[in-house]
Design goal:
alpha/beta, Rossmann fold, Arc Repressor Mutant, subunit A, 8 helices, elongated
Length: about 220
């Protein structure tokens, strides 16, 4: 899952990038509203964490422009402004949630997880696909209750596929949602990670749809855990 962090405070930005990375997200950072607007319009993020008090272009204006341009990415407003009128302005501009500074990173991560679940149509805090289970809160996955040992990129890939299970996902889409902007992207590496996941999950859980991509499905007759 790929996140755009829009925050002009360099210390807070570094802290949040580390926190989000440790939680299993690929993170791009924009330090001002101008760059944020461009990235939000040109990159397919799964969610945005957006500060309102930005240089060059303020956060509310950025959000309004995204929504006018039909950018539907879920947005969590993150700001030091505590007045109710600022919250209303953020929601009216198209925000999906709001968190005031100072905040606990655990609450930020919880709100982000909820935002991602809602946007993908999931209600439960954990994701299941037959006997395969993934807990975004702990960044862990298991099959039949047995923990899986996954690298950070394997976890990101599995997380994204479980959020969109049953749907064919192309290699280009996976690349766009797994790697941050600075990563040397190569769609051929997706095949490598798919192969690794198949060895750990069981080969039949991930179907190759020739010419289109991959689809994650439960095994036939398998009950959810």
């Amino acid at each position: 899952m790929r996140i755009l962090l829009v925050e002009d405070d360099p210390d807070l930005s570094r802290q949040l990038k580390l926190t989000l990375g440790d939680a299993g997200y690929a993170v791009d950072h924009a330090p001002d509203g101008e760059e944020a607007q461009f990235l939000g319009e040109t990159e397919p993020y799964d969610a945005v964490i957006l500060d309102l008090g930005l240089p060059k272009v303020d956060g509310v204006s950025v959000l309004e422009r995204w929504r006018r341009g039909n950018v539907a990415t879920p947005v969590l407003i993150l700001t030091a402004r505590g007045a109710w009128s600022d919250k209303v302005a953020g929601f009216d501009a198209g925000a999906d949630d709001y968190l005031a500074k100072p905040f606990h990173t655990e609450e930020l991560l919880a709100r982000l997880r909820a935002l991602l679940r809602r946007s993908a149509g999931h209600a439960a805090p954990s994701l299941s696909c037959g006997a395969l289970r993934l807990d975004p809160r702990a960044a862990r996955a298991s099959v039949n209750g047995e923990p899986l040992r996954l690298t950070s990129l394997e976890y990101r890939l599995l997380h994204y596929m479980m959020m969109h299970q049953g749907r064919v996902i192309g290699r280009t889409e996976l690349v766009e949602h797994l790697y941050d902007q600075d990563f040397d992207r190569d769609s051929n590496t997706i095949e490598v990670f798919i192969g690794r996941l198949r060895k750990k999950l069981g080969a039949d859980r991930i179907e190759t749809v020739r010419g289109l991509g991959y689809r994650l499905t439960p095994l036939a007759g398998e009950e959810a855990v």
